[in-house]
Amino acid sequence: MMIVDVEENDDVLVPPTNFSMVEDGIFRSGLPQPSNFGFLETLNLRSIIYLCPEAYPQENMDFVDAHDIKLFQFGIEGKTESSSTSIPSHTITGALKVLIDVRNHPVLIHCKRGKHRTGCLVGCFRKLQTWCLSSVFEEYQRFAGVKWRATDLRFIETFEVMCLRQCLYSIIYQYQGYGSNKRRLLYQEEGIQKPKIKSI
Amino acid sequence: MMIVDVEENDDVLVPPTNFSMVEDGIFRSGLPQPSNFGFLETLNLRSIIYLCPEAYPQENMDFVDAHDIKLFQFGIEGKTESSSTSIPSHTITGALKVLIDVRNHPVLIHCKRGKHRTGCLVGCFRKLQTWCLSSVFEEYQRFAGVKWRATDLRFIETFEVMCLRQCLYSIIYQYQGYGSNKRRLLYQEEGIQKPKIKSI
């Protein structure tokens, strides 16, 4: 039945394994294969956040070059449950800064299988969105399945979003002001700095 | 740790169980509880597709009334694997018509647990999007987990999207024309009917 479908329709789309939408303009998946490139084209990606330390595969590099997609690589070792070293949180912070910068959207986050490293980054992003922790874990586990790791959940739980949130508040403040300071917006000539959002 | 988080932040958001984004303006979940209403407000829903035959719970009805959300109910029995009767495909077709009508977006699809009925509707929607069947199944199983049902996969596989697709092509044709008929757009005064997309 499936083969008939494929034969009838040359445009059949094959999303990468573990593909999903996270938010408007944010997607997640495992490592895209050449068979997924047709699908990826439909996303009109502006950037990719790649979470493995290995060099980006040549076919994938050709794809991002051909479509003028920015590649942000944050090399995080693919650990096993028994590993004692944990994900460096400053790496996740760096990736989060790229992720929340709408100038990079639409953006695809991926590692190898789209379970652990991607799951940790999305989990930290959900904390930033003030999702309750049990919902963050539920989403993590939906993608990790039986491969879920207690170390990942612990990483997500203890990851400190407050600092990043304050940084965001400070940007919002510079843009809009808040409370009784809202008038500050009116005095741009007073030398209030334009917000600078830095990627990486 | 989580309780501390909740106490620190009154705005903690609790998405419904099995919540996820499907596409821009399309969400899926299990039955929302009152504790999820704060989160649902952030979605600015215009409509809800409810797939159970049971009357909508009063709290949920109050929520949709208060937020001027249109409720589309398509009563599908919650079956068990052993059940011999299958989902009526015309009911799914009806729900699909509401789902793809952007005037209803943002829309939330939900049944009770967000696994089987919701999974079947989303699966048929993916076929309409020309996703390959193995990717459709992967997504279905991510949400159904160990509760996945072979009958649901069979339903999705055999569901006929061609008729609905032709109906869409005919709407697109009326809007834009295609191929050598593109000029038809120029002659609206010739009595070419305006497309009428009917909900339900």
Structure description:
Chain A is an alpha/beta fold and 200 residues long. Chain A has eight helices and five strands, in the order H-E-E-H-E-H-E-H-E-H-H-H-H. In chain A, strands 1-2-5-3-4 form a five-stranded mixed beta sheet, covered by helices on one side. Chain A is globular, with a radius of gyration of 19 Å. The relative contact order of chain A is 0.14. The N terminus of chain A is likely disordered. Chains A and B meet through helix 1, strand 1 and helix 6 of A and helix 1, strand 1 and helix 6 of B. Chains A, B: Belongs to the protein-tyrosine phosphatase family. Atypical dual-specificity phosphatase Siw14-like subfamily. Chains A, B: One of its GO terms (molecular function) is phosphatase activity. Chains A, B: This is diphosphoinositol-polyphosphate diphosphatase.
Oligomer: homodimer
Secondary-structure class of chain A: alpha/beta
**What sort of overall outline of chain A do the alpha carbons produce when their principal axes are compared?**
globular
- Characterize the biggest β-sheet of chain A: 5 strands, mixed
Tell me the radius of gyration of chain A: 19 Å
> What's the rounded overall pLDDT mean of chain A?
84
Helical stretch tally of chain A: 8
| Uncertain spans of chain A | 1-8, 183-192
Largest interface, C-beta closer than 8 angstroms, per-chain residues: A-B, 32 and 33 residues
Quantity of strands of chain A, as a count? 5
What spatial order of strands do you see in the largest sheet of chain A?
Answer: 1-2-5-3-4
* First and last CA, distance of chain A: 47 Å
Which range best describes the helical content of chain A: under 10%, 10-25%, 25-40%, 40-55%, 55-70% or over 70%?
A: 40-55%
Q: What percent of residues of chain A are in strands? A: 5-15%
String of helices and strands of chain A: HEEHEHEHEHHHH
GO cellular component, one term (chains A, B): cytoplasm
Pfam families (chains A, B): Y_phosphatase2
Keywords (chains A, B): Hydrolase
InterPro entries (chains A, B): PFA-DSPs, Prot-tyrosine_phosphatase-like, Siw14-like, Tyr_Pase_AS, TYR_PHOSPHATASE_DUAL_dom
